[in-house]
## 1
Amino acid sequence: MRLLLLGGTSEASELARVLSAHPDIEATLSLAGRTARPAASPLPTRIGGFGGIEGLARYLRESATRAVIDATHPFAAQMSANAVAACAQAGVALAVLTRPPWRLEAGWREVGDAGEAAEALGATPRRVLLTVGRLSAGAFRAAPQHHYVLRSIDAPDDPPPNTELVLARPPFTLADERQLMTSRRIEIVVSKNAGGEATRAKLDAARELQLPVLMIRRPPASGATTFHDVDAVLRWLHGAAS
Ligand code: NAP
């Protein structure tokens, strides 16, 4: 059975490892090409966009793909919407592998997007740990009064002024996060509501240090059948193959 795995997340990497041990499944991993040096994968990998819904539907037909697993990041809403439309067009089965969202603690606040988060930081200068990904960092140029410690895998093109860049790839431990926050005298953490385990230690550290968190709300889900663990995806795949 030929399968396309839309990746770019630790969940997709985990599923790729499991699929590579299934000789009956011929899986290809697809990455957008956003990170300069993506983590190595045991699956054959294609990199770059498909060219919208039409391009993806064409790819699925030409490669005789039978199933797509959308394991993209919960904030990759465009790719997920394209997968729904292209799979419907090409008659291909689709499921989503994603992380359940994080729950907000007392004193934490949810905002709609990065621009709203920048505004919610307020007028008084603060020391901010920014973990929203390099593509969303530019929104904080609108709040240049703050000192930012910006952690991302690759450097952003347009960071706000007064930014210390910390380049690192998850997973991070609680000890790593505690050390980062205390050494930089962080006063508030800004994060997307990515969910999952690979980056949740920052929230555990914030809770421990009694720091407020601004959490950017997830875009609406694509509506496709959704699973939170790899075993459930494998069971679904066996059903889709039969
Ligand atoms: P997006 O806005 O939903 O997608 C924009 C376009 O990028 C898509 O229309 C598609 O181009 C291409 N694309 C996205 N994911 C792709 C994939 N896995 N394989 C091939 N093409 C892909 O996506 P995004 O938010 O920029 O995220 C891009 C990638 O980074 C995704 O793989 C995602 O899992 C990963 N990521 C995103 C975030 C985040 O916060 N957004 C965080 C961590 C990792 P075409 O229309 O040309 O097909």
Note: The helical segments are 10-19, 52-62, 77-90, 114-120, 174-183, 201-208, 230-241.
## 2
Amino acid sequence: MRTPFIAGNWKMNGSRELVERFGRQVTSAALPEGVSAALMVPFPYLEAAVKTFEQGPLVVGAQTLNDQPSGAFTGEVSGGMLAELGVRYVLVGHSERRALFHEDEAAVLSRVRAALATGLVPVLCLGETLEEREAERTEAVVLGQLEAVLDGLEADQRQRLVVAYEPVWAIGTGRTASPEQAQAVHEVIRARLGRYSASLAAEMQLLYGGSMKASNAAELLAQPDIDGGLVGGASLQVDDFLAICQSAG
Ligand code: PEP
């Protein structure tokens, strides 16, 4: 049984004060029953966020991790360090990491493995660029990204992932995929999961991301294969984030 999940990705935004504001306003009563939600905050705010939400209702995620457990990797953070802080989720393969930090399929897979090895839940992001969509390569690109990770994992590891479909042309652009466009890709992803196992297809949470906001969340979240959202810009405003969570209930 899949439950709705809304994850906010602050990217390189926010402040300690914003963590505190979320802490004051995001109470259990503010989230609809059955909806779970997470905030992926920058590294310096992780500890404060974990502490703020020690009793719920939010869980805390990081936005990336290194694939090595320790060593001479100046500036990097390992999965073990995140887990030790009480972080539960980590984004892997976000299009900004793929494009700006040159994380290729091998890097994405090794980060997913590192997350799983330390007990974190990887939120694997997939998505096509506008050019790829216009060349009618959406399915090939998205399924290629999905298989590059799933083929490198054991069956029990695959069951521990969350997948987010985020068309690159919709991220931070204000241009959202229509509910039909988003559902069509989610359906294809779920069908492909079925090739691995029926339970994987039935149970994996598939999130949509790309300019999701209070005004369009309900119709996206009403689609049969969309189980939640990965929310960038709108997760920086408590009211907007809560309104999206309400739409998932
Ligand atoms: C994201 O960064 O994952 C994202 C979906 O951003 P936005 O909601 O701002 O498009």
Note: The beta strands are 5-9, 36-40, 58-62, 89-92, 121-126, 162-165, 206-209, 228-231.
## 3
Amino acid sequence: MKDSIKRVAEDLMKSKYAIALTGAGISTESGIPDFRGPSGIWTRDPEAEKRAYRSYAKFQKDPKEYWRDRLSGPSLLGDLDKATPNAGHYALAELEGMGILKCIITQNIDNLHQKAGSKKVLDYHGNAFKLRCVSCGGRFESREFDLDRLLIEDQLPPLCQRCGGVLKSDIVHFHEPIPTDMAQQSLEEAGKCDLMLICGTSAVVYPFALLPRMAKERQLGKETILIEINAEPTPLTEEMISDYLVQGKTGQILPKIVEEVRRMQLFTKK
Ligand code: APR
């Protein structure tokens, strides 16, 4: 493990534009379950996954009913308001602060990268603390709306303060298109990077899982290193899309990488 930590640190030191792609695995050490790991939400309750696949159609058919559902029970991921970043989130924020990591593209909706201090975060699957207008694409903080009052007064769905369009959760549901701005910016970042850290994702959900594949393809033109940090091998490992896997917990591995980069920086001018 020590050698792999050193190898990642060396690759990061050599990189000109490193980015990180993250998934639910980086938040499990904050007490938020992942989806497909051994005790994942979908692993434990396949029916819940089937229901999740129907959320977007439900919104399109009856936004009021969609909102009644959303406001009637707890989130599958637990109380995200109370969730706090773990050492893995802070390590990525530190790498950004050192000028090494330029961007995080996350599938997570928990806002923990932002809470950890990361500045450039693309919420590829949306953000649980935001609402998004389906007409103009405008995003608003959920706390700007008294959703419980709208429910009691039968005033759902919430309406866009800009164009009057219907608002849904910013969370991107299965079958829902990735918002154009996120898709565009993520493609640009994946196209620009010369190092991609892929942390805590099973890499089976598309189109997100295309990003490492695209970066790899471009490798012919330029050396792009793809490094997985994950509890288990994924299709990216098996298909040798990633150059190597550092197997283990992101909350343990990422801080060690930052420590090694700091040590190396002492001996080299970066
Ligand atoms: N450290 C490293 N890896 C971990 C850790 C950890 N502490 N905990 C779990 N993992 C690994 C799991 O073994 C698994 O390979 O992280 C991966 C998480 O995979 P998923 O549960 O599939 O989560 P993710 O890849 O983010 O799912 C993508 O699927 O359901 C949708 O929209 C949802 O954004 C989500 C998308």
Note: The first helix runs from residue 2 to 14.
